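Entry 0007
Protein: Phosphotyrosine protein phosphatase I domain-containing protein
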Amino acid sequence: MTRVLFVCHSNAVCSPIAEALLKHFAADRYQVMSAGIQPTEIEPRALDALQRLGVGTEGLFSKGLDAVEEQYFDIVISLCEQAEQVARTIPASQLMAWHFDGACCDSPQLAAKVVHEIFERIKLLVLVQDRQVKSLW
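Output (structure tokens):
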């Protein structure tokens, strides 16, 4: 099972959205966590946007990097510029940087937009990882 960690500044919007979406889309193949440099409460509009798509949010909560200390991940993905340097210090085989606007949940429409953008990247990540595991030829 591939272990993935999403990291952002506050673990309030993008990283919990990414965690919920990857769990929803491919929980059978991925163990997923998210964490923040300075965690705060998850933005209610982000949770609402996920729930409107039928993505479960139960058990989703904001956590700091101390929750992932001394763990190894196959993939670490930073979701904002502030988190990229910290993400580089987390033991992992791969580091990716997907940067999103910090004000992405200022309205329900913006929250829905960022959920869609993250979901598109999640689908691409799963597609690429699956192809690396299973040869097409």
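Curator remark: The radius of gyration is 14 Å. The helical segments are 14-26, 44-52, 81-87, 108-133.
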